[in-house]
Amino acid sequence: AVYTCFEDVPQSSHFDFVIVGGGTAGNTLANRLTENPHFHVLVLEAGPSNEGVIDSMVPFFANRASPFTPWDWNYTAIPQETLNNRSIVYPRGHILGGSSSVILGSDYMVYTRGSSEDWDRYASISQNQGWSWHSIQEYIRKNEKWTEPADHHNTTGQFNPKLHTTRGVNSVSLPGFLWKNTDERIIQTTKDFADEFPFNEDMNSGSHLGIGWTQNTIDGSTGRRSSSATSYLGPHFISRKNLNVLVNARVTRLVKTGTSRDGKPEILGVEFLDANNPEKKFTVQAHKELILSAGSINTPQILQLSGIGDRHLLSSMKIPVLVDNPSVGRNLSDHPLVPNIWRANSNNTFQAAQRNATLASEQFQEWNTTGKGPLTNEFTNQLGWLRIPASVTDFWGNIEDPAAGNNTAHYEFMLCNGVIPGASALPSSDNYFSIFTAVVSPASRGSVALNTSSPLDAPLIDPGFYKEEIDLKVMKFAIRSAQRFLTGPAWSEYIISAVDGQGNTTMTGDDSQLEQYIKENTATVFHPTGTSSMSPVNAGWGVVDPDLKVKGVVGVRIVDLSVLPIVPAAHPQAAAYVVGERAGDLIMKSMGSN
Ligand SMILES: Cc1cc2nc3c(=O)[nH]c(=O)nc-3n(C[C@H](O)[C@H](O)[C@H](O)COP(=O)(O)OP(=O)(O)OC[C@H]3O[C@@H](n4cnc5c(N)ncnc54)[C@H](O)[C@@H]3O)c2cc1C
């Protein structure tokens, strides 16, 4: 069951596994471990329950769940020199379901598995074939539950049914509401410009290049978002006697409980604050393993607060050093994103309901009573995964191509029928079309580090955008590519003119004007990864072994997106689910339980 008060949690003295963070990967693991009725699991989640949070249920209200709400950690990144010293908002889910429950403005419920080369690179970096594309297919099948889109439209040619299954846990669907005015133009342009913008029937095959229909974590039968909380903690799972979830429980540090025979600290305890009783610190101990699933920002923060990290940083905060590991919090990779907006000759865009309260209310009623209509969708019906063509000579100079291989994208298009509410300021009049561009195989790296020794203070988050100039070059190419896309004949009567960005910058100017446009308008796609990276056993770097056990200690694994060494060229919630599923498998096997 889900509890709001620690005293109400039964068997509070005996838990085999304690999972810190009821997010995407954490809830997946909690579900799999409690398939064994003898394993008692406690999940400690800092945020509130997702029950009744309408903004987290309605796909099109996704942007309202974050930022600056109780369901968000409300982080801001440190000022980025490369973005004219701007500090950008850096949302993270603070709610049961974690970041799979909050989806803001420019990012959605997009379900993308990445390219096969991304996963094969993880296997190669970690020297463990269990992370290869071939090996993770079983976890994709355990995760995905394909559902018909909410409007039951004919989906022939919009996905490849052979790649999908209805047997998993987490609902996935195609768009449940079609925007004919833009859907048809986008697909037509993949025919008109087939060389540069080829159509891809299903970008989740492992070969993701091209433009195709977006798959989302939405349950088409209800028109509602599917998160790790609604799926893996759904009614027939959360009723298990051995599955206990405590919300409003913020873990402040891990606690050493002993020393192993080979002299390593054994860590099975956690200290946490219960929002109902903020004066008191609680501790709880796992009997078998402690799992950190607090996500790419909070997992390294908790490690550092517990004395696991770079000794120079820890000493400067007067935190006793348990394990000196400079890799903790380093190696962050994320996707920078720029919204590109054009005035459109249409009155059938997102803006119609934004400016008409009666229409907005009708759309909500339709969603609420029938599970149909425009609110069953997120914001993009089509995505593109694209590369700098080999014909562009001298693009990379001496720099090694940062993509995982020749079939992996350098940049992405998210194509939207208007200005997305919350993602950009809504102009007071007219209608729009937008293409969000993102650098999806970045060379730059950032970091997460404690700002103070207080667990209640936000860490310093540095996404490191454009630290490597090549990423800026890729973004320039991506925006010009978006402009080329709209020169297709399908758009000639539709696109009126490009709209200026923040700070009166324009995307249509020369190289240096375009650079200013990028610097003033870059945000994050919210995909930080790699801050507790896995590395080969006995490597001189990295935070966890390929079985996700924390190096240098006994008792703790990390099970969230922070363990993947590089952000995939994908929206990474599917990857977080894969990490949760594989961790379940690894732990069950190590306990002799399957
Ligand atoms: C606004 C937004 C939109 C996104 N949109 C998409 C998308 O459309 N498609 C996609 O594929 N990906 C998307 N992502 C990225 C994706 O959601 C994340 O990469 C993924 O969910 C990460 O999973 P995780 O398990 O690593 O962490 P999370 O799901 O973030 O889970 C971490 C959990 O730990 C909890 N926690 C943290 N610290 C503590 C603590 N001290 N004590 C107790 N609990 C703690 C958090 O509250 C949270 O519930 C989005 C992310 C955000 C923030």
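The CA atoms of residues 69 and 94 lie 9 Å apart.
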